[in-house]
Design a protein that fits this description.
With 353 residues, this protein is of the alpha/beta class. It contains eleven helices and eight strands.
């Protein structure tokens, strides 16, 4: 016998239709819920990824200065209450010093770095025969002209040959990424070797740096520098790239170190090819044999004064310390020019051979 399916009454069909509609609603709700969960997870991830990309670009990637339209000249700014003397307070003097240096028609020199970058420097020889050479390394996002602008004429008048590089990824030198001294230390050694070739094996060579340039010359002290290096003048340097990254992250962005620092470290390694934990001035100074004069502004909030105090404490070689109470970042030589120049000159004379 052939089994004939029983007919469904109206009540059965309605129940099945309601059940099917319920299943469709549940499926749609589950789909929306999954989308909301994915969005809740992805939004923070996207925010962190965006923050890492921004901070990496802000801190490491070279940024060409746009040509500014000529504006009406402003008077030098007065420091805000409680803040140190900034570059804006000495704008006229800096422009005058830069103009003087360029008017001396310094010789432009180009060398190739260990990793193939064309790096530029300007050399202003002393007017009289001299064995004393100053290698001047400028700071972060500055150039070889401005940071030492108020010292050029003084040092030159004292009989020093002045070798003024543009650090990699700055001004006239090649490079896409700023490496906070990790790679720049090798460039510093290259310029030091050049100075000895240029001025003879009996020359007295001094390395001086401001801000990132200070950390660059201190880190270079851990390399095989020429024996002609008599001393280092380290003005407002930081202790390590990691320390200054973390400080700026907190100072300017009010952001916690974790996880941004960890993720930025990966980006720095992959894109810029260096590790900001690879070297610190503290480690180098523990075995340093070159005399060091440490200088810092007492009201420096960009690179904390404590970093120079830590460097000074770690230094194993003969050392001196000058804190200029009212100076901000990089302005010690302008805030107290006579004291700065007297201290720096006496330091170099002490180790001259």
């Amino acid at each position: 016998y052939q089994q004939v399916p029983a007919r469904k009454g109206p009540g059965v069909r309605e129940r099945e239709q309601r059940a099917e509609a319920y299943r469709r609603r549940q499926k749609e709700l589950n789909r929306k819920k999954a989308g909301m969960i994915a969005a809740a997870v992805m939004l923070p991830v996207a925010a962190i990824a965006g923050s890492v990309a921004f901070f990496f670009t802000y801190a490491v990637v070279r940024m060409e200065k746009k040509k500014k339209k000529k504006k009406r000249k402003k008077a030098p700014a007065a420091p805000k209450e409680g803040e140190g003397l900034t570059f804006d307070c000495f704008r006229d003097k800096m422009e005058e010093g830069t103009r003087w240096f360029k008017e001396q028609d310094p010789e432009k020199i180009t060398l190739t770095s260990y990793d193939g970058l064309k790096l530029s420097a300007y050399l202003l020889p002393a007017e009289k025969k001299s064995r004393n050479v100053l290698l001047l390394m400028h700071g972060y996002r500055c150039d070889g002209f401005s940071d030492f602008s108020c010292l050029y004429q003084f040092y030159h008048d004292q009989g020093y040959h002045l070798l003024v590089p543009h650090q990699r990824s700055h001004a006239e030198s090649d490079g896409k990424y700023i490496c906070f001294g990790v790679k720049e230390r090798y460039d510093c050694k290259m310029w030091a070797d050049y100075a000895v070739r240029r001025f003879g094996s009996d020359c007295n060579l001094y390395l001086s740096g401001i801000s990132m340039g200070s950390s660059t010359v201190l880190m270079a002290a851990g390399l095989d520098l020429p024996s002609n290096v008599r001393g280092i003048i380290a003005d407002c340097g930081f202790t390590s790239p990691y320390d200054i990254f973390r400080h700026v992250l907190n100072l300017q962005f009010r952001l916690p170190s974790f996880p941004l620092m960890n993720l930025t470290e990966l980006a720095v390694k992959r894109k810029a090819g260096f590790d900001y934990k690879a070297v610190s001035t503290l480690d180098v100074l523990k075995t340093c044999k070159i005399p060091v004069l440490f200088i810092h502004g007492g009201k420096d909030d960009f690179v904390p004064t404590q970093m120079t105090l830590d460097n000074y404490s770690a230094c194993a070689s003969p050392k001196e310390l000058l804190i200029v109470p009212e100076a901000g970042h990089g302005t010690s030589n302008m805030a107290e020019p006579e004291r700065y120049r007297k201290t720096a000159l006496a330091f170099m004379k002490k180790y001259e051979k």
